[in-house]
Amino acid sequence: QVQLVESGGGLAQPGGSLRLSCVTSGFTFSKYAMSWARQAPGKGLEYVAASYTDGTDSYYADSVKGRFTISRDNAKNTLYLQMDNLKPEDTARYYCAKDVNTRGQGTQVTVSS
After folding, report:
1. What is the DSSP letter of 72?
2. CA distance 69 to 72
3. What pLDDT sits at residue 46?
4. Contact 35, 97 (CB under 8 A)
5. What is the DSSP secondary structure assignment for residue 105, as one 8-state letter?
6. How much is the mean pLDDT over the chain?
7. Smallest Cα–Cα separation from 91: which of 4, 7, 18, 6?
8. Concatenated DSSP letters for the chain?
9. How does pLDDT run across 28-63, given as a tens digit for each residue?
């Protein structure tokens, strides 16, 4: 079955960096555009970044543009999200998503001094 397992979250200071990883299995990763989404307490799901199948094209929400970088390694079936210059408003649970109905359990990111 399809599995998406996120890791790399944690506590970071404002201005700091974290790198999230999402190891996938159960489907042909290289044939799917993949996304990262986040949900802060009391708020809806926000898609923050997406990567085309071969990683040549990407999308970023305005809230993270210039700070976050999505990438993928199709040989390792893994999706990444490099998060730099983190802000307290980036605090959320981050999910790797294959489509609107399929995502992992998420990894918590907390940005606080």
Report:
1. E
2. 10
3. 97
4. yes
5. -
6. 97
7. 18
8. --EEEEE--EEE-TT--EEEEEEEESS-GGGS-EEEEEE-TTS-EEEEEEE-TTSS-EEE-TTTTTTEEEEEETTTTEEEEEE-S--GGG-EEEEEEEETTEE---EEEEE--
9. 999 999 999 999 999 999 999 999 998 889 999 999
Tokens of 2: 């399809």
Predicted confidence at residue 54, as pLDDT, reads: 86
Residue 50 class from Cβ within 10 Å (0-12 exposed, 13-18 middle, 19+ buried)?
Answer: middle
Question: d(Cα 37, Cα 14) in Å, to the nearest integer?
Answer: 20
Residue 103's DSSP bridge partners are 97
Could you read off the pLDDT of 64-84 as tens digits, one per residue?
A: 999 999 999 999 999 999 999
Length of the chain: 113
For residue 78, the one-letter residue type is: T
